[in-house]
From TrEMBL:
Keywords on record: DNA-binding, Transcription, Transcription regulation
Gene3D superfamilies given in the database record: Periplasmic binding protein-like II (3.40.190.10), Winged helix-like DNA-binding domain superfamily/Winged helix DNA-binding domain (1.10.10.10)
Family statement: Belongs to the LysR transcriptional regulatory family.
The HTH lysR-type domain, residue ranges: 7-65
GO process terms (BP): DNA-templated transcription
Designated name of the protein: Glycine cleavage system transcriptional activator
InterPro entries: LysR-type_TF_proteobact-type (IPR058163), LysR_HTH_N (IPR000847), LysR_subst-bd (IPR005119), WH-like_DNA-bd_sf (IPR036388), WH_DNA-bd_sf (IPR036390)
Molecular function as annotated in GO: DNA-binding transcription factor activity; sequence-specific DNA binding
Length: 301
């Protein structure tokens, strides 16, 4: 095993021997040709003989010495064995790790409250949350699965429908006593979700009032918040009336932190929530367990 202290030199030699070129080997290894040459000379110094013969003419300026030519197949066999071993280690890691991607508001208001049950059922799975409002690239392994809202069509990915969504009007309990009908909302400060989300467009207050046959004055008192989680928090604190996604405030409604007003008005949207994954993650044990558990949990509610 002592020879493995020179693994970088052996790797440089193998690449240069395969290409018969220091520049080509350097390109493969993401180093400079001079660095490849330095590693090869180091290995030659350790061994006490030359590995390459330098030619003055011909398509390849390098050729292997007889000693190097005899040893090369065994060295290449060793690198293939190392690659196979690393593949097994990665497979083992993937079977016990699970990276889930979701937006901040979906993570905080929906995923985290139920995720503890999954962790309790499968304590050997190392759960990692990638909390971001950007769409991570599942095809290159930035996450194993993602929870997204949209129409269910993401090219190259498999999507399993979780549930639909609708927009509802909510406020702090202290404000709800003065609201009997939609027109009463015009007396209050309106909170606007201005989040520049890369998925579906959420209905705004103008569309909501228009559906009720009312017109919202463009100068009506209100303010915009570009983070849905902060919008919900501001509503809980009584700073105004909000038009929010129903699925994300169910816990706040149940706990009495928010109160739904104009509850007879449904404002459905044309998209829903989906569990999404790539073909690369399709057969990983941890991914399959999470998919099965999540669908079971959603359908049980």
């Amino acid at each position: 095993m002592r020879d493995l202290q020179h693994i970088k030199s052996i790797q440089a030699f193998e690449a240069a021997a395969r290409h018969l070129s220091f520049p080509a080997a350097a390109k493969e290894l993401f180093v400079t040709p001079a660095a490849v040459g330095q590693q090869v000379r180091l290995l030659e110094s350790v061994l006490g003989f030359k590995l390459f013969q330098r030619q003055q003419h011909g398509s390849h300026r390098l050729s292997l010495t007889p000693e190097a030519e005899r040893a090369l197949p065994e060295i290449q066999l060793g690198f293939r064995a190392l690659a196979a071993g690393m593949a097994q280690l990665r497979a083992a890691a993937q079977s016990t790790h699970l990276t889930i991607s979701a937006s901040q508001v979906v993570t905080s208001k929906w995923l985290l409250p139920i995720l503890e049950a999954f962790a309790d059922r499968y304590p050997d799975i190392d759960i990692r949350l990638e909390v971001t409002d950007k769409l991570v690239d599942l095809a290159v392994g930035q996450a194993d699965v993602a929870i997204r809202c949209g129409g269910g069509n993401w090219p190259g990915l498999t999507a399993e429908h979780l549930f639909d969504e609708s927009m509802i009007v909510v406020c702090a309990p202290s404000l709800s006593v003065d609201i009997k009908e939609p027109a009463d909302l015009l007396q209050f400060t309106l909170l606007h979700d201005s989040n520049a989300y890369s998925g579906p467009v959420f209905p705004d207050w103008e569309a909501w009032f228009g559906a009720q046959g009312l017109k919202l004055d463009p100068n009506h008192k209100g303010f915009k918040i570009n983070a849905p989680l902060a919008l919900i928090d501001a509503t809980i604190m009584g700073q105004g009336i909000a038009l929010v996604r129903h699925q994300l405030v169910k816990a706040d409604l149940a706990a009495g932190r928010l109160h739904r007003v104009c509850s007879d008005i449904q404002h459905p949207v044309s998209w829903g929530y989906y569990l999404v994954w790539s073909s690369a993650a399709d057969n990983r044990p941890s991914t399959k367990l999470f998919r099965s558990w999540l669908l079971e949990t959603v359908r049980a509610k």
